Amino acid sequence: MAYGAKRINPIDLEKRRAVGITVPLSGKAVFNSSYETKDAIKSNLINFILTGKGERYFNPSFGSGIRNLIFANINRDNLTSIELLIREEILTYFPNLNIKELILTSAVDDNTVLFSLKFNIRDTEAEDEITINFEQ
After folding, report:
1. Phi, psi of 65 (to 5 degrees)
2. What φ, ψ does residue 35 adopt, rounded to 5°?
3. What is the dihedral of CA 35, 37, 40, 44, to 10 degrees?
4. For a surface tag, which of 24, 105, 109, 117 has the fewest beta carbons within 10 Å of its beta carbon?
5. Cut 0.85: pTM above it
6. What pLDDT sits at residue 112?
7. Residues 69-96 pLDDT 10s
8. What pLDDT, in 10s, does the model give residues 43-74?
9. What sign does the CA torsion over 84, 103, 72, 53 have?
10. End-to-end distance of the chain based on CA atoms, in angstroms?
């Protein structure tokens, strides 16, 4: 048995075939392609977090809607309920992710909320993290 063997998603076996697009959309031809499943999932997750409910045509339930929630009166209880809501939504739309750590912190004086998510992909055990700073 091989120890420390890296698991690879079958989609990633063809090195020249793109599996998704990256965020931000600012490539030479509007967007850049991602060639690994890990990068595609990370871009899809960022897109999901930044999308508001009802913003995506033909799929109005898609999106975290976090921007609508975070600039209401922020206190620890609000942040906890937002965190639980986002955790549920991510598990619904990204069942292949395992959330390791989800942190929302707020700086009331600066009107900012810092969103941090550490996750791994269940099939490959690849780990990554996302940090987004929301400012008003």
Report:
1. 70, 20
2. -110, 0
3. 170
4. 109
5. no
6. 76
7. 766 777 777 788 888 888 999 999 999 8
8. 889 889 988 888 888 988 888 878 777 667 77
9. negative
10. 53
**DSSP three-state, residue 31:** strand
CA distance 73 to 68: 11
Residue that is written with structure tokens 């600066």 in the block: 110
Instruction: Give the residue among 79, 81, 63 at the shortest CA–CA distance from 71.
Output: 79
Encode pLDDT of 18-27 as tens digits.
777 777 777 6
Report DSSP state, residue 11: G
Q: Which two tokens stand for residue 128?
A: 């990554």
Tokens of 26: 């600012």
Going through the chain in order, the beta strands assigned E by DSSP cover 20-21, 33-34, 97-107, 112-121, 127-135
Tokens of 68: 């609508």
The per-residue pLDDT of the chain, averaged, comes to 80
Residue 114 near residue 133 (C-beta atoms within 8 A) = yes
